[in-house]
Amino acid sequence: MGEKLVNTCVHLEIIFKFIVNLFLNVSIAQFRKDYLTAIRREKSKALRKKVMEKTEKKKGVKTIDMNFLMTDTSENKIVSHLGLKSMSLQNEKFYLEFTKKDLIKILKAYGVNLSMSKKKPELGQVLAEKLNENSAMPNYCIFKDSSTCTDKEIHHPDTIVEMPETEISAPSATVTVSNKSMTQSQEDAQIHVHQDNTTETTTHLPSQSVVTEPDSASVFVTTDCTTQASLSKRKGNKKTTRKQTSKAKGRQGKRGIGRKLKQTTPLPDSSDENCGICGKPEKSEEDWICCDICSIWYHRDCVGLEDETSWLTCSNPDAVYTCPMCV
Q1: Total structural domains in the chain?
Q2: Under 8 Å CB-to-CB from 325, ≥6 apart: which residues?
Q3: Number of helices followed by number of strands (H, E) in the chain
Q4: Do residues 214 and 275 both lie within one domain?
Q5: What's the whole-number mean pLDDT along residues 44-64?
Q6: Which of 60, 173, 190, 286 is most deeply packed, by most CB within 10 A?
Q7: Sheet architecture: strand order including 250-251
Q8: Among positive and negative, which fits the CA dihedral 208, 210, 215, 220?
Q9: What pTM was estimated for this model as a whole?
Q10: Do residue 244 and residue 327 come from a single domain?
Q11: How far is residue 63's CA from residue 77's CA, in Å, rounded to a whole number?
């Protein structure tokens, strides 16, 4: 009888310990679950708060992109100019928001033509300087359709280039780049020579030709609004290859041997004479073509003119070719 009572007490003790351990395990598991839920909720609130703060900052500062520049309807695109200026003042690396192609196009709106071989920091530094120098966007019409860009929309001043005495016999002769527009198919500048008497002589010469006229002669060169800066820049260029190749825009290699194009001499390697897309220099057996808008040379294959029919059409001296960057 006594042994049975002892065994019963032992069993009851074992059952009691099992129940207590089970209860404690359940309680600890529930406590851990509640604790993790609370921590997760706090983290979610903190993350939501950060997201809301970033959203408010983005709403406060409006980012300027190429889509905004193209759709800006303000007068002379003054809103875009002020927006870009604000971005440059708030962040020195604002140019990282744009691609290299976009930066070159924006610089053209401020009358600066740079090669694709330039690095982004260099382009951004030049753009920041132009934003501080100008109170508006001079060539804002570059972001519009070329058919809607008129002479009244061009606000950049005339550029006066002093010609060396060895090139012009007249000691006081200067070259004034006018704002009058002309058709893109005319690659030769139309030069009007005004003498002291009442007579007027009109002469058609290439952009690198040497003008010899009597004293006190002034030469007026009329160019397109999109090629004004590039023409004034290349006026003093001493290189005599691509700019003096008649009216033919296409430079030919092996393909199309029967075409009549003026022969050219090889140029030294220079960033201004490299392809505007791949940045590689010219080779003797490659076809090149020049854009009538930006006056930059490109490889035939880089602009997608592998087809012989398209190449013959675009490289025709009377044809107007626009590169993919200016489209």
Answers
A1: 4
A2: 101, 104, 105, 276, 277, 291, 294, 296
A3: 7, 8
A4: no
A5: 76
A6: 173
A7: 250-251, 288-290, 297-299
A8: negative
A9: 0.31
A10: yes
A11: 15
The amino acid present at 114, given as its one-letter code, is L
Residue 30 pLDDT greater than 90, yes or no: yes
Same domain, 39 and 72: no
How big is the chain, counted in residues?
Answer: 327
Same domain, 218 and 272: no
Packing angle, helices 100-109 and 120-133, rounded to 10: 30
The answer to whether residues 172 and 213 touch, using CB atoms and an 8 Å cutoff, is: no
* Same domain membership, residue 29 and residue 5: yes
Choose the final residue of a domain: 100, 125, 148: 148
Amino acid at 22: L
Residue-wise pLDDT for 61-101, tens only, equals 567 888 888 888 888 888 888 888 888 888 888 888 888 88
Distance in angstroms (rounded) separating the CA atoms of residues 229 and 130? 14
pLDDT band of 223, cuts 50, 70, 90: very low
Distances (CA, A) of 251 to 255, 266, 282, 287, 324: 11, 12, 10, 5, 18
Residues 95 and 52 grouped into a single domain: no
- The DSSP H or E segment spanning 6 is helix 2-60
Q: Which of 116, 148, 180 is the last residue of a domain?
A: 148
DSSP H or E segment with residue 202: strand 200-204
Q: 313: which residues sit within 8 A by CB, 6+ positions away?
A: 319
